[in-house]
Amino acid sequence: MIDHNALVMFVTASTALAFAPGPDNIFVLAQSITMGRTAGFIITLGLCTGLIVHTAIVALGVAAIFQTSIVAFTMLKYIGAVYLLYLAWKAFTAKGEGIRADGRPAPGGWKLYRRGIIMNVTNPKVSLFFMAFLPQFADPAKGPITLQLIFLGAVFILVTLVVFGLISQLAGAIGRRLTRSGRWRKALNVIAGVVFASLAVKLALTGQK
Q1: What stretches of 42-168 adopt beta strand conformation (E)?
Q2: Residue 12 lies in a domain
Q3: Is 129 within a domain?
Q4: In this structure, are residues 120 and 27 in contact, taking their beta carbons and an 8 Å threshold?
Q5: Domain count within the chain
Q6: Under a CB-based contact definition with an 8 Å cutoff, are residues 206 and 125 in contact?
Q7: How far is Cα of residue 34 from the mean position of the Cα atoms in its chain?
Q8: How far apart are CA 153 and CA 91, in angstroms?
Q9: Considering only CA atoms, which of 187, 170, 165, 178 is closest in space to residue 42?
Q10: Contact yes or no for 203/81 (Cβ under 8 A)
C-alpha cells in the first residue's frame, strides 16, 4: 500500500521527530525522573493512545476544523494549558514524594495513563502536524488515502512508543539514583513543576499556524 522507499523515509523522519525536544517527550522525561521508569512508560502508552485519536481525526478530515475554527482551536489548547498548570501545582506542592522502594510509581497506573492521553489529545497542534506530515507520504495511486493515513499514523505511533519508551527507561534510571535523597526529590519536583508550567505557557501562546 505504501511505497517501500517512502516508508523508510517516513520511519526515519518519525524517529528524528520523536527524539527532537518537544512537549510530549519532555513530559515523559520529567515524569520518568520524578516517578520512575514504570510511570514514564505508562504515560507513554497514554500519549500514544492520544496519537490514535489524532490519527483518526486526520483520516476523517476533522483536523480541518481546528485549522479553520479559531474558537475550537483556542478552547482545546486552553483546556490543555489548564491541565498542565494543575500538574505544575501538584508538583510544586508535593512533599518530596519520589519512587517507592519497590520501584512502582506513587500515582495509580490509570491516573498516569489518563494523564498521558489528556496531555496529547488537548494539544490541537498534533492534529495539525499530522494533517501536514502524514499526507506527504501517501500516494493516491497506491490505494485509499484514508487507509494509508491510518497505516502511517500507526507506524508513527509505534516509532513514538519505542523512542519514548527508551527515554522513560533511561530517565527513570537516572531519577531512581537521584531520588534516594530527600533533598533531590524535592528539587526534582520543583523542576517538574517548572517544566509543566512552561509547557502550559507554550501551549497557551500557540497559534494555529
Answers
A1: none
A2: no
A3: yes
A4: no
A5: 1
A6: yes
A7: 17
A8: 32
A9: 165
A10: yes
| Residue located via cell numbers 489548547 | 77
The secondary structure of residue 106, as a DSSP letter, is S
CA distance 71 to 83: 18
Please list the ranges in the chain whose pLDDT falls under 70: 1, 62-68, 72-73, 76, 80, 94-107, 178-189, 199, 203, 206-209
Contact (CB, 8 A) for 23 and 203: yes
- The residue assigned the cell 481546528 is 66
Residue 53 burial (10 A CB sphere; 0-12, 13-18, 19+):
middle
- Tell me the whole-structure pTM to 2 decimals: 0.74
Q: Can you give the residue range of the structural domain that contains 66?
A: 24-204
Q: Any idea of the CA torsion for 150, 132, 48, 114, to the nearest 10 degrees?
A: -120
pLDDT at 64: 66
Residue 100 is predicted with a pLDDT of 43
